[in-house]
Amino acid sequence: MSRNRRNQSAALRWAPVIKTVVLCAFIGGASIGYVWQKNQIASLGRQLKEREIRLERLNEANAKLAKQLVTLRSPAQIERRLKELHLPLSQPGQLQILRLAETQPGEPAGEAELLMAERRRAAAAHP
Fold first, then answer.
1. Distance (Å, whole) CA 95 – CA 20
2. How many domains does the chain have?
3. Which of 46, 83, 84, 101 could form a disulfide with 112 if both were Cys (CB 3.0 to 4.6 A apart)?
């Protein structure tokens, strides 16, 4: 019986060792991969939360600026600001406003020209 053991090749004795090492390496690699993926998921979750918070803040700031823009564009606010800066500006009178009538592509432009001519005559008559 001892004679048989001497005749066994080295590859046969190393086979269980190699299988064990490969199995341990696979289990270890899978474990490291699992932990790495969990860390990546946690990191991405934190980034997502930070960006959602930033988006919410930007939306709030945008809404605030939109309200401010509406306020600054109001005629009352513009008049108040003109008085503060002592600027001699005012809203134009009705005769100073010239409204142009849009014509359709096939429609003659004569009617719109007559309206403009009447406005000019009225503006010249009322200086």
1. 98
2. 1
3. 101
Average pLDDT, the chain: 84
| 110 within a domain of the structure (yes/no) | yes
Q: Of 33, 38, 57, whose CA–CA distance to 46 is shortest?
A: 38
Domain span holding position 99: 92-127
Q: What pLDDT digit, counting tens, does each position of 40-98 carry?
A: 999 999 999 999 999 999 999 999 999 999 999 998 999 899 999 999 888 888 888 88
Q: What percent of the chain has pLDDT over 90?
A: 50
CA angle 42, 48, 53 (to 5 degrees): 130
